[in-house]
Design a protein that fits this description.
With about 375 residues, the chain is an alpha/beta fold. The chain contains 16 helices and 14 strands. An 8-stranded mixed beta sheet has the order 3-4-2-1-5-6-7-8, with helices on both faces. The protein has a 6-stranded parallel beta sheet with strand order 11-10-9-12-13-14, with helices on both faces. The two termini are about 15 Å apart.
Amino acid sequence: MSKKVCILTSVHTTFDTRIFHKEAKSLVNVGYDVTLIAQYYKNEIVDGVKIIPLLRPKNRLERMTKTVWHVYRKAISANADIYHFHDPELVLVGIILKLYGKKVIYDVHEDYSEAIFYKNWLPLKTLRLVALLSDWFEKLAAHYFDGIVTVTRRIGQRFDRSIRSHVIVVQNFPIVNKIFDKEFMIPWNKRENIVAFVGTIDLIRGIKEMVEAMALIPRKKNIKLILAGNFESESLKKEIESMAGWNRCEYIGYVGLDDVAKILGRAKIGLVLTHPVINLINGQPVKLFEYMCSGIPVIASDFSSWREIIGKSRCGICVNPLDSEAIANAIVYLIDNPIEAEAMGKRGKSAVQERYNWEMEEKKLLEFYNAL
């Protein structure tokens, strides 16, 4: 009988790329019986993954209380051998599942003790205290779990040396076979002058500077910015829509993995212009590697860790993400130098094929599960 795995998330979407398309499907493909508890509208089996739905909460407070309670109840009913959860608000659920004698894995997507300082829904005076308590509780709870999965080595190093043997880094690199599908790839000389951004659209990820840059580019260049993802809020969307560069943007909204591949397969540049905030500077945004994977040059924030990746692969340009004029100049340079831009894209693609791909990270995840 195959081992039963139950994946839990109260925050992420059902078809989150890391949770569903990478980890869950990788486990299914090698014979695990996988159930996913996530926000959805019906019980369904998709690509071998059994989805148990959670009602969408009305607000953050309801999600962190009522939704977490529902996750716990449904997790107990699933009666799995291994539980793999993805959100810090589910740490207590993980501890209770351990008390039931279950194997429990905590998947840590970011340094939450740093991320708290950028949560605008928390009172400013409480941020430091909440960050300290969060850090202490997360590290304490980690001792009870059977494994900690992190997306970067730096996050893994936060945890005590006494549990390092239970920590594994499974980086969030793209699924090569999905993005490289030739049917999505338009020949370079037939592509329009499209610049793409894929992901959550908010101020920290540079939406304002991207749209300002579009306003600075001469109209005769006939360059368009495609935005694929959800705006952080309706108020931000209205603010950005009032900017001068918005009429040179095409907003698509949230799209699935296949549509991401289609967008990048006809684009000439990918943007990843995150602001220099502490919990993101040392991260590895999956969109950076998706752009490389699709064979397009990147324009990225000039952070040392990102500069190292882009410089080693010679696949793009690093700029100050707060400088709209520098962003505009980089876009124009790549559009005006198509031979060099295409060569950058090819080098980025080769780097992903050789080093930065999910197929390599998948092996580490499966070995980790086998060791349990």
